[in-house]
Amino acid sequence: MEKVFKLKEHGTTYQREIVAGITTFLTMAYILAVNPGMLGSIGDGMTPEAVFTATVIASAIATLVMAFTANLPIALAPGMGLNAFFTFVVVSSKGMGYSWQLALTAVFLEGILFIILSLFKIREAIIDAIPVNLRKAVAVGIGLFIALIGFSNAGIVVNDTGTVIGLSKSITSGAPFLALLGLIIMIVLFTLKVPGSILLGIIITTVIGIPFGITDISEVRSPISLPSAPLFFQFEFDLKELLTFKFFIVFFTFLFVDIFDTVGTLVGVTTQAGLIDKNGRIPRVKQALLADAVGTVAGAALGTSTVTSYVESAAGVAAGGRTGLTSFVTAILFLLALFLSPLFLLIPPAATAPALIMVGYLMMKPVTGINFADPTEGIPAFLAIIMMPFAYSIADGIVYGVLAYVVLKVAANKLKDISIVTWILFIIFLLRFILK
Fold first, then answer.
1. Domains identified in the chain, total number
2. Is residue 33 in a domain?
3. Residue 230: inside a domain
4. Among 187, 135, 94, which Cα is nearest to 369's?
5. Per residue in 145-155, pLDDT tens?
6. Greater confidence, 194 or 415?
7. Does residue 89 contact residue 254 with C-beta atoms inside 8 Å?
8. Which of 28, 257, 271, 393 is deepest in the core (most CB within 10 A)?
9. What is the pTM of this model?
10. Which residue blocks in 391-419 are alpha helix, DSSP H?
11. 312 falls in which pLDDT band (50, 70, 90)?
12. Rounded to the nearest 5°, which phi and psi values hold at 79?
């Protein structure tokens, strides 16, 4: 263990790393309830049981790669926001209407490209080319989008009130009331800095839902069961679909969000852990990015959406985690959870909805760093943020943000602010409207 993880060099101990690994798992284990519930709602063969297995195995694989190649205290799992984009935009009949098999194909191809970009350091060039305020805006917009999904899944907001969207008339009873109660519990626990506040809030809300008749325990015979088979290699390589602009938007959105989600998490967590070098560089960043890319490819092959680094890893770092041993412990706990699917699948949408709302809150932080004083920066960022929940599309938010950015920079004669990559994206997105 010492030879592999270099505990003494990082000023840590076995005990501290184990506690940190447990803490990280507790803070992000909500994904084992949220992801199967979200992707499993697609139906047509994509069941919650299969998604649960895929989520667990993909998370464990990616986190183990992070532990042994990058030696960083960062855990990975299917990303919030990306799973919402997969379910409610790409596959939903209200969105693009793709099959989930084709959506998995987009995730798989994005993961392959991510591996190539990481190996040849092209990823850094792409990141540097995207305007910094737009990067922050994407994270904030996804946060609002996730929060809207949470409120909608809980039945707290509905679109049958005579307005575009409004509060449900049955908010004081049933699932909406339970979700509100769960949200109150969750935000109180979070404010009091209780470890694993999101997961604990989900558990408490699920238990409260039993007497309400919302949590159905009648079918549960045992908390332990053998895992269901994942959806192995359910890809759909239809060239007529793969070579369309519509598919490019799906592919690019998965890649764009995955890259910046990962980089943001890596920078934030390694800075908190004091692992950044004097030049501000992340140690073993190539290996860390490869862990993310490998996890995404594995997840797609097993039947789940894009895998990414989790900012909840910061909780483990706060508990003392400094090496890959923290990630190793988290990965082992994921594998143990594989046999507890009845407990995680018991959790109703009303209990996971508050978690989506809380994740939306946590993704608001970058908004404070957006330069709204400069309209050529602030307006594109605003459009990217607001279009995601209003258009019910992460992709549309990115498209409108990039288009507005280039138009305003040209109008203000700030052409030097527009990179070649941004110009290319502008032309591609403009063609979307011309050829539509």
1. 1
2. yes
3. no
4. 135
5. 878 888 888 88
6. 415
7. no
8. 28
9. 0.76
10. 394-411
11. confident
12. -80, 140
